[in-house]
Amino acid sequence: MDTTIKLALIINDPDLPAALRVIAQKVQNQQRITFDEGVYLYEHAELGYLGVLANHIREQKHGDKTYFNRNFHLEPTNLCVYDCKFCSYSRLIKQKEEGWALTLDEMLDVVKKYDAEPVTEVHIVGGVLPQYDVAFYSALFTAIKKHRPELHVKALTPVEYHYIFKKAKIDYATGMKLMKDAGLESIPGGGAEIFHPDIRNVIAKDKCTGQQWLDIHEEWHKLGMRSNATMLYGHIEKFEHRVDHMEQLRELQDRTGGFQTFIPLKFRNQHNQMENVPEVSVIEDLRNYAIARIYLDNFDHIKAYWAMISRQTAQLSLNFGVDDIDGTLDDTTKIYSMAGAEEQNPAMSTKELVELIRQVKRKPIERDTLYNVVTDFTDVVFEGDVKPQFYKLPVIN
Ligand code: V47
Ligand code: SF4
């Protein structure tokens, strides 16, 4: 059934609370929902209702298109000066023997390993270490671009930038301009966690504040550049904190338009200091994607990070507002397997990723980091495969 008809049925359903019908009407009219309505959805809306609204928005924006990219992760170090309670990945500097810290040449060797691969992006993410300063990262970005100019460098987060600029005694605007000139092309969404200080001061004390995270993205956007945003959810935060987080992103996006994608990250509770905090259910994951899609009306894309939530949940999420499932990353990322994610060895070939999307009757589109289409895989036949049939599920209700 057409998403517009499903939405109309909800709007006219006398058994639904008036507040939910008003929100559905707003979605139909492409009007923004308020902070209180966001909290109301988290508290009262059922999964089926949220799916209709979020899928309507998703299909209005992207139809059946589902984006992915071909990327690899470069993780310079797992040592870190900070001690975030949820982090399963980092080792404090005093636990040096359990960690690694690559030199610039070793990092370049990781990049060179992919020379023959059709990857379009390197995503650089890791811990914060004093020896990785402004000069070091500038040299790294420049060396990667010199070696492979067409490879998009998506690197670091405001956590690192705040730390290195403070040490160099330069302001954010100057620092981000230096990074851009060195070869940085976009900023991933990490380090956002939960902006609200009541939560941030407990789970991510000492690193950049929520406001500083937003200020660094704003300076980056002012240079005409793009970035992503994440939210670490499903731990000690309340629904109000999630909506507050998205409200601050929505407000900045209104001013700059520089965000491309919102990526909700499900808190995983293994091998970290929050092992006693239970993980939320898959239903809560899907509700969260859907509410993000409804709330963030000025974000083009909502991404499900398949390496974190499992392939099956990633497939389901495509009916709950998600239109992007990240990349064909190699097993170079250890962040999530260490935290207890289902994917212990998160590698998926392009063919597997395409099949994953086709199985749920969506159209797989390979994109580059800035969402330019690289290849439309809708009708591509892989060697040895039978031509895929693309069809919509029959209407039964
Ligand atoms: O900021 C750390 C999260 C983030 C845990 O922009 C955890 O395309 C859950 O931001 N449970 C870094 N999450 C990764 C990141 C990212 C990933 C994929 C794509 C993009 C993008 C960005 O990982 C951290 C933190 O929020 N994280 N530990 C954990 N136990
Ligand atoms: Fe360090 Fe990032 Fe882990 Fe926090 S989340 S301890 S900043 S690596």
UniProtKB/TrEMBL annotation:
EC number: 2.5.1.120
InterPro entries referenced in this protein's UniProt entry, alphabetically: Aldolase_TIM, CofH/MnqC-like_C, Elp3/MiaA/NifB-like_rSAM, F420, FO_synthase_su2, MqnE, rSAM, rSAM_sf
Cofactor list: [4Fe-4S] cluster
Residues that coordinate or bind [4Fe-4S] cluster: 80, 84, 87
Residues in Radical SAM core domain copies: 66-300
Binding-site list for S-adenosyl-L-methionine: 86, 193
One annotated GO biological process: menaquinone biosynthetic process
Gene3D superfamilies: Aldolase class I
GO molecular function terms attached to this record: 4 iron, 4 sulfur cluster binding; 7,8-didemethyl-8-hydroxy-5-deazariboflavin synthase activity; aminodeoxyfutalosine synthase activity; iron ion binding
Keyword Iron-sulfur applies: yes
Cofactor binding: number and manner: Binds 1 [4Fe-4S] cluster. The cluster is coordinated with 3 cysteines and an exchangeable S-adenosyl-L-methionine.
Record's catalysed reaction(s): 3-[(1-carboxyvinyl)-oxy]benzoate + S-adenosyl-L-methionine + H2O = 6-amino-6-deoxyfutalosine + hydrogencarbonate + L-methionine + H(+)
The entry's keywords: 4Fe-4S, Iron, Iron-sulfur, Menaquinone biosynthesis, Metal-binding, S-adenosyl-L-methionine, Transferase
Family of the protein in this entry: Belongs to the radical SAM superfamily. MqnE family.
HAMAP family in the record: MqnE (MF_00993)
Protein name from the UniProt record: Aminodeoxyfutalosine synthase
Upper lineage: Bacteria, Pseudomonadati, Bacteroidota, Sphingobacteriia, Sphingobacteriales
